[in-house]
């Protein structure tokens, strides 16, 4: 309970709340000799209660005016979930349909749109995850750090509606996604969900760096490959041995590189939105480890409650006033 | 005033010590209806009342004169407590009742031809306000009554201790009008100082004061003298308790007064002169 007020100057009026304690608020009738009246416990209780109510009502009004609220705070929680970085390909080809054509308006959805829709569903289902978003094209784009704020995640995913950019530079995207995970923190499962429709060769230096980073940070990798019709897939072997190199078949080589990382790795080849859904359902099912995280509670305004209390107390006092009799 | 003032008939319990002829059995021997004794002519030089038979029988040969008990005047004093509690106005207005009783006592003394005095005692620091003894005119008494009504604001009735100093030296009939809302020890110390006189305590109470308050309502009462206040939630149970408290107080007062040879008259339903008539008839029927 961290209570705070908006305008502390009002608090100077708080001693006013004690005023009803010293004045009964009722007009007294003269009586010859009070000493003769027998002591009466219910009457005493009522008179004390009325004073307490009046003090409470005044205090509630002053606190309401001061704008009492509960300040935002962080609560430590343990839930089931994972730290997930969504790594989204934003190359030009992502704006095409699965059939490899530019998306026409409304007829068939583009790969980006399908990815966006499914990711929005996915993040909507996972309540206790922390999710970050990195997009990459020629360069990686830092979109959203790891956060438990679902609205922010949804907004970040929705922001990929804007037209895609240039080429595919998967190594830089992976490097940035890995940077999201602090090497020091432990607990929960960490995974990168790579969604792309193509791959690029990774040079030797980057390969080394990525290898170390994946090892150090214990990150799992899920690759959802959105395969365009008639293009080479992850698992397709080269027909011609001369094509067996990273430049000709980058998808296959990237797959091999990932396999060689010796980390939990799963690749999905999706040729339509349905297949991609299957991949996401798998992740949903598998990644449920206890995770330790902090939840931000927003500021809570209590002035309305103050006014409600004041109104209720004043109603009681008004009833008492109406029940007052004079000699 | 005289139109509304009701006369009642009072009788002193003892003979009046006053010299002057009046309406009440006196201690003086002189002309009268009730034969008292024979006296020598030298002691009662009234040859008209020489009793020949008694004179002949006198072995010393002196003249015997018959003397009779004289009816004498009586001093009647109306003493009023001027403490603020007497200002209370419930079903009846106590100051108004005070004026009414003052007028009634005055009218009765005028009826008997007695001498009348009035004293109002407030707090101890102030001297009592007084109307000196005498056969006063109605206007003077009326004016004094207004003065009394306007003076009922003393914070206590401690001024009553001065009352004996201002009473006539000889035995008088004293009507002591108060609500007697005072600690019993004070009353017990006050009453012996009045023993020389014949005191009729008039206890002025009011129905509202005795608990005739609206039921199931909140009432805030402030003590007229102390200034302290209390809030009461009037309930039948509390009403019964108040009635009980006043009944107990009534018995205490009766006990206290009777111990000093006085019989109180409780006026809690207003004032009618018949109450005093009945009071004197009941107490003095024999005398």
Explain this structure.
- The complex is a heterodimer of chains A (327) and B (287).
- Chain A has 327 residues and is an alpha/beta fold.
- Chain A is built from 9 helices and 12 strands.
- Chain A has 2 domains: 94 residues, no CATH class; 217 residues, Rossmann fold, CATH 3.40.50.410.
- In chain A, helix 2 runs antiparallel to helix 9, helix 3 runs antiparallel to helix 4 and helix 5 runs parallel beside helix 6.
- The longest helix of chain A has 26 residues.
- Chain A is rod-shaped and about 120 Å long.
- By secondary structure, chain B is an alpha/beta fold.
- Chain B has 2 domains: 52 residues, no CATH class; 149 residues, Rossmann fold (3-Layer(aba) Sandwich), CATH 3.40.50.
- In chain B, the strands form 3 sheets. Chain B has a 6-stranded mixed beta sheet with strand order 6-5-4-7-8-11, with helices on one face. A 3-stranded antiparallel beta sheet of chain B has the order 1-3-2.
- Chain B starts with 20 loop residues before the first strand and ends with a helix.
- The interface between A and B is medium-sized, with 26 and 39 residues.
Name the features:
heterodimer, A: 327 residues, alpha/beta, Rossmann fold, 2 domains, seven-stranded mixed β-sheet, three-stranded antiparallel β-sheet, 9 helices, 12 strands, B: 287 residues, six-stranded mixed β-sheet, 25% strand
């Amino acid at each position: 309970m961290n209570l705070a007020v908006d305008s502390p100057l009002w608090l100077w009026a708080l001693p006013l709340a004690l005023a009803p304690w010293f004045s009964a608020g009722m007009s007294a009738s003269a009586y010859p000799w009070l000493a003769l009246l027998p002591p009466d416990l219910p009457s005493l209780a009522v008179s004390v209660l009325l004073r307490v109510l009046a003090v409470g009502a005044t205090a509630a009004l002053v606190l309401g005016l001061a704008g009492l609220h509960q300040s935002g705070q962080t609560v430590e929680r343990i839930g089931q979930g994972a730290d997930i970085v969504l790594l989204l390909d934003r190359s030009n080809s992502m704006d095409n349909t699965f059939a490899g054509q530019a998306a026409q308006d409304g007829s068939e959805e583009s790969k980006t749109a399908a990815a966006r829709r499914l990711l929005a569903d996915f993040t909507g289902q996972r309540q206790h995850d922390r999710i970050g978003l990195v997009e990459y094209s020629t360069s990686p784009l830092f979109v959203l750090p790891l956060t438990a704020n679902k609205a922010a995640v949804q907004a970040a995913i929705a922001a990929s509606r804007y037209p895609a950019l240039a080429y595919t530079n998967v190594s830089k995207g992976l490097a940035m996604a890995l940077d999201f995970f602090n090497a020091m923190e432990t607990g929960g499962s960490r995974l990168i969900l790579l969604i792309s429709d193509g791959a690029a060769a990774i040079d030797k230096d980057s390969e080394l760096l990525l290898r170390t980073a994946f090892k150090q940070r214990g990150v799992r990798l899920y690759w959802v490959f959105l395969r365009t019709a008639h293009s080479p897939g992850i698992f397709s072997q080269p027909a011609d041995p001369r094509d067996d190199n990273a430049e000709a078949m980058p998808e296959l080589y990237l797959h091999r590189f990932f396999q060689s990382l010796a980390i939990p790795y799963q690749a999905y080849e999706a040729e339509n939105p349905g297949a991609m859904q299957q991949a996401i359902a798998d992740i949903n099912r598998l990644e449920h480890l206890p995770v330790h995280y902090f939840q931000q509670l927003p500021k809570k305004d209590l002035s309305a409650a103050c006014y409600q209390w004041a109104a209720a107390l004043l109603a009681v006092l008004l009833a008492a006033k109406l029940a007052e009799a004079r000699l | 005033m005289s139109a509304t003032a009701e006369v009642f008939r009072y009788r002193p319990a003892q003979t009046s010590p006053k010299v002057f002829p009046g309406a009440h059995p006196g201690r003086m021997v002189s002309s009268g209806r009730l034969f008292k004794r024979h006296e020598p002519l030298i002691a009662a030089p009234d040859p008209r009342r020489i009793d020949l038979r008694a004179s002949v029988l006198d072995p010393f040969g002196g003249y015997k004169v018959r003397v009779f008990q004289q009816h004498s005047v009586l001093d009647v004093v109306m003493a009023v407590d001027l403490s603020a509690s007497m200002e209370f106005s419930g079903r009846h207005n106590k100051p108004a009742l005070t004026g009414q009783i003052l007028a009634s006592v005055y009218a009765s003394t005028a009826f008997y031809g007695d001498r009348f005095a009035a004293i109002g005692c407030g707090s101890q620091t102030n001297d009592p306000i007084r109307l000196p003894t005498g056969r006063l005119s109605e206007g003077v008494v009326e004016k004094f009554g207004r003065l009394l009504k306007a003076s009922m604001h003393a914070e206590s009735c401690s001024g009553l201790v001065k009352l004996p100093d201002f009473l006539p030296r000889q035995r008088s009939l004293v009507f002591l009008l108060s609500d007697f809302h005072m600690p019993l020890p004070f009353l017990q110390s006050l009453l012996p100082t009045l023993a020389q006189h014949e005191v009729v305590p008039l206890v002025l109470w009011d129905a509202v004061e005795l608990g005739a308050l609206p039921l199931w309502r909140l009432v805030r009462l402030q003590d007229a003298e102390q200034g302290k206040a209390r809030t009461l939630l009037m309930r039948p149970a509390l009403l019964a308790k108040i009635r009980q408290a006043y009944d107990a107080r009534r018995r205490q007062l009766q006990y206290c007064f009777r111990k000093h040879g006085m019989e109180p008259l409780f006026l809690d339903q207003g004032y009618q002169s018949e109450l005093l008539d009945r009071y004197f008839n009941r107490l003095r029927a024999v005398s």
